[in-house]
């Protein structure tokens, strides 16, 4: 059966840590694909940007 695990964080290091933790629990041969996406939006209060780092791991269970 094909399954997905979705991750979504404001900081790339948090995404990296959580994905690595999950990947340790999954057999390497069961990984089908990994999708990665970054979105950036201006913050309304000041001139900083808000980032969203997300990834999806598609795997066989």
From TrEMBL:
Against InterPro entries, the record matches this protein to: Spore_Cse60 (IPR020296)
Q: Known Pfam families for this protein? A: Spore_Cse60
Domain of life, per lineage: Bacteria
Q: What protein is this chain from?
A: Sporulation protein Cse60
